[in-house]
Amino acid sequence: MTAVLDSLAAHLPWRRAPRDGWLGVYSAGPQRIVAAVSYRADGPRPSVLVAPVFDAPDAGDAVLRWHRAEHAQARANVLLNSVDYRIVPLEPPAVPAQELRDALRWRLEGLIDLPLDDAAIDVLQVPGASAGTASREVFAVVARAQTVRDWMQRCRDARAWLGALDVPELAMRNLSVLAAGAQAHAFVHLGLKSTRLVLVWQHELCAFRQFDVAAYKLDAADADTRAMLIERLALEIQRSTDSFSRQFHGADLREVWVSAVREAERISQQLAQLLPQRVRAFRVEDHVALTSREPVVDADRGLDFTFPIGAALRHGVH
């Protein structure tokens, strides 16, 4: 799978032979950027360094200056914020691969909330219903072209190598593949403000959802309300996995991995009582070799590096 808008980054003028590393960058708020760097290691786990937190109006420029000073040979993989992109499932038209993006652009008319002239479009391939069969669906990823241009200009000004622009769903895919490999699985991340679910098979993103059951809601809930929220989350996961099994009948989805900014083990145990699949807690620290002291998650400070670490792990699945 290519990264979203990979082809745009391929034409930047300062391309050079990099080390096999990636800088993952994610906008966690209007003035906050979180980032991580990953390199292939000699051992079985990739080496990951969590970057300092960048809190400032020019946080995007600051992280790229840090990248240039400390990790200039790593490629930058910038995750788009949810407000800046849409993923639209579409039936692929019968056109040559090189014409697919242009063909999909016209099918998107009326399906997205921004003018097509202001949109940058890329395509994510989806596996077929069973191994070896052709896909009946692709994902058109539509981003605000101005956002793409802004990041390209930032990288140009910082003399940083923009290797790709991605979306959080693919960062989650990268993380989940570390744990589950090519087998069909669900991966859930209970974040600070929302919960995201991806369904992955053959290393590819097959489906995705977002829910309003977030960590802060569980923290604030009494026992009865918490039980209700966990039951609601289990129901949404079950609906998603059932839909996945109907669409991808050649896949055998037996595992649900649960990542959370708080209490991943406890939440996994509670979900395990409600779901037919095996439910397993996912801790980033179990799957990568951390080389920095900054924690992956610090919920009290409102910090979650899960997505930028996933963005930095592009080399693990490509």
Summarize the structure.
31% of the residues lie in helices and 28% in strands.
What does this structure look like?
This protein is α/β, with parallel strands linked by helices and 318 residues long. It has two domains: 1-166 and 284-318, Nucleotidyltransferase, domain 5 (2-Layer Sandwich); 180-282, Nucleotidyltransferase, domain 5. It is built from nine helices and 17 strands. Strands 1, 2, 3, 4, 5, 9 and 15 form a seven-stranded mixed sheet that branches. The longest helix is centred in the last third of the chain and has 25 residues, at 223-247. The model is unreliable at 7-18 (pLDDT under 50).
